Amino acid sequence: MNFRDLADGLESGLISVLENGHNTVKLNKRVRGRVSRMDALIAEYQAKILKKAPEKNPGDHENMLLYYRSKLETELKVGSIILDVESECTSCGAHLYAVLIDEHNISYIDSTHYWELAEASPDKYEYEPHIEELGYCEAIKIIKARKLKTNIKIETGELVFVNSFENPELYGFNDDRDYTGPGTGTLLGRDRLMQHLGKKNVGYGQMTNMDVTIYSNGFEVLIGADISEKIYDDKRYFHENHFKMDKYKAYALEMEIKEMERFQEMLLSNEFVRQGNMSLSVWRWMCADKSILRSVGEHVPANRREGISVNVAPGTWSVEHYYDFPYRSNLIYSRLMLKKGIK
Fold this sequence. Notes:
Helix content: 25-40%
Number of strands: 14
Structural class: alpha+beta
Strand order of the largest sheet: 5-13-14-9-8-10
C-alpha cells in the first residue's frame, strides 16, 4: 500500500482511523490534500521538463519529479508515521502522529508518547506500535461526562458575576505549582483552569464573544440565552413567512421556537427571575462571593454595567459548564446549584 492507496482506502472506508478520543482535523482530508498537492507538483515538474525550463543544476527538475513521485508511490510499512506534520487535539492539546497499525487501521498517538515507546524498543527507527500501547486522549473522561464541573463556596450569599476579574491574587497561579498543562484553547485546559479557580472559590466558564443572561431562583443560577424578545420576533416571522420559506429552514426555525418555549416554561415553573444581561468581550464569565472580592481588593461592581450581583443561599455550590457540549439545551450554557447550605 502506498500513499495514494491510503487516501483511496480512507475515502472508501476500507481503512479505519482509531481516534482514541482525540479530536482533530479528519485524517482523510489531510491525506487527500497531500495527494492533491503532490499531483500538482508532479504536473508542474513534468511541464518544466517538457518545456526545458531553466535549471540551477542539470537534472534538478527530474530529481524533483522523482522525489514527489516517491512520496506517493513508496510502500508504507506497519509503524509508518503517515504525515510528517503533527496535528493537535483540541480536547487535550496533544500533538499527534497518525501511525499505520496494520493494513486496515491507522491510529492517533501522542508524538511524545510515541518517541518514549520508540526509545525503549530495540531499534527506535524500526519501532512498530501496538494498539494496547497507544493510550487515550487525556480529556476522555470530560468528553464522556459532557460537562465541566467544580464546586465553590458562597459564604455570604452575595454572588457577583462579571466578564473577567482583574486582580491576580484572585487567580493565585503562583500559589498552585500543580497548575500546568494546555491553554484554554483546549477542553482539558479549560477544565484545569476551572478546577484551579474552584479551589479559590471562583466560578468560571469559557465562552465566546457574546452576551449571556443570568437567571436565579435563589437555589439555582443559570447562565443562558436571552429569549425575552427573540421568541416573539421569531414566532411572528414564522407565522408570516413559513409558507414561502425553504422547508428545511422552516422546520429548523419551528424547532428553535419550540426549544425557546420549553426554556421559557422551565424558567416559569421553577420560579427563575431574570437578573440581568452581561457582555463577554473577554470570552468568559466568572463569579465569586462578594467577601472574596473584598478580601483581595478586587473591584466590586457598582452597577449592572460592571457586573451582576445575585442573592443566593449561602453554602457549597456545584458549577456545571455545558458550552462545549450543548446537549441539554442550546439555551443553557452553565448551571450553578446549591449542594449543601450553611446552617
